[in-house]
Amino acid sequence: MPQKVKVNFVDHISIAVRDVAKAERDFAEAFGWEVSGRYVDTGEKIRVSYFMVGPTAVEVMEDLDGSGEVAKFIEKHGEGVMVLSFNVDNCGQALQALTENGAKLLDEKPRFAKELNRYFAFLHPKFYHGVLPEIIDGEYK
Fold this sequence. Notes:
With 141 residues, the chain is α+β, with helices and mostly antiparallel strands. It has a single domain, classed as 2,3-Dihydroxybiphenyl 1,2-Dioxygenase, domain 1, CATH 3.10.180. It is 22% helix and 35% strand. It has 3 helices and 8 strands, in the order E-H-E-E-E-H-E-H-E-E-E. An 8-stranded mixed beta sheet has the order 2-3-4-1-5-8-7-6. It starts with 8 loop residues before the first strand and ends in a 5-residue tail after the last strand.
């Protein structure tokens, strides 16, 4: 039987969009939410705005130059939920448990997000029904 990977909560849900400013306005107007933050991750080629809903961030993200993973996702699937991220205490330990469970991974070791000061790793979306599962440690700031 596989070991249980301890997940604290859904850390964030990332929605791939063509126009982050428009998506930001659409969510703000519909729900009355205020943008909690914005950042650009040049390594991942994304521009992100996010809203905090309890401990979970709802992110809208656009590709910076049309060549990144968000652009590829939109071309293949259209706009929509791309990433489902789970908060764990320690990304390395959770990744080890996933490996031992035979999970299909994109990342064999944790990556470090300098902009967020957090470690994360992705599982392969082909094996998880089109969603890109992510494990991430630390706090969303």
